[in-house]
Amino acid sequence: MQQIADALGVSRATVSNALRGTGRVGRELAERIRAEAARSGYVPSHAGRSLRTGKSANIGLVVPDFAMPLFPVFAQAFERAAKRRGMAIMVADSMGAAETQREEIRNIVARGVDGLVVIPLRGSNLADLALPVPMAVVDSAANPLNAASCDHRDGGRQVARHLADLGHRRVVILVSAEESTVSAERQRGMEEVFRIRDVRWKVVALRPDFDSVHDWAMGADMSGDLGGATACAAAYDAAAVGFATAMAARGLRVPQDISVTGFDDLIWGRILSPALTTVRQDLAAIAEQTLAVLADGAAPGRIFPVTLVARGSSGPAPRS
């Protein structure tokens, strides 16, 4: 900044005001200062600014597992929300392990972030964490630490109504084998509607990954393991894709022989043929609200609506 000031014959304070858009600096002079800054390759020192303000303008984000396609999309939503606030995101991956999750939380806090966002692993408990910075959890309404999330239960209701309206009277619900408030909320929403609409259901708990579901579905007996179901409502898109591909490998048609639905609207479901009926979350709104909880002191616990996206994988129940 001093070099820019010397080159233009102005004070360092004038350069600072022009680059930050503050103070009384004429338009022509401000443009000359910005042009000289660009020519000289000037970039502001966030480290220096943090020494003056006591704030780093960095937020930590710890995700469960980047191998699952939902979480890179979630990270992008937080990156966009942070940029709008002049903040930066530091991301850490728990890699599917509870011990790694706690380790990454400690590591990222040690790097001087102003706050921390955690999308927790299924079944993990973060209530006993003592941290020097505020933490916001993105999970479900059933988690008392939840700062913001989508309405997982209503998403389950929407899926169940969709299948019931199509005439399905026997449905298998695929859920996470691990304790998960998200999976449980989606399951409860489905069961609420199925109970009212006189739909019989069977819950199958599996790890929500492609191989686990695919291998199970390949060996499932349609009249036994699936209870004669004409539809499968999966709590996650990954489980739905694994199930649908297994049904196709067995010679069953989706949706003519069995309908399949998922949850999260991931790219996997959109490239499946036929494309997957699913539930879409408003990730941008969740990210914005979570940062508002951390940065502005907004009240936590806000729940955002979801949208059913009906595609080709769901159709009328077969007559036999």
TrEMBL record:
Annotated organism of origin: Halodurantibacterium flavum
Keyword Transcription tagged: yes
Annotated GO MF terms: DNA binding
Leader sequence segment: none
Protein name: LacI family DNA-binding transcriptional regulator
Keywords, alphabetical: DNA-binding, Repressor, Transcription, Transcription regulation
Transcription as UniProt keyword: yes
Pfam families (UniProt xref): LacI, Peripla_BP_3
The HTH lacI-type domain, residue ranges: 1-53
Top-level taxon in the UniProt lineage: Bacteria
Database matches in InterPro entries: HTH_LacI, LacI/GalR-like_sensor, Lambda_DNA-bd_dom_sf, Peripla_BP_I
PROSITE patterns: HTH_LACI_2
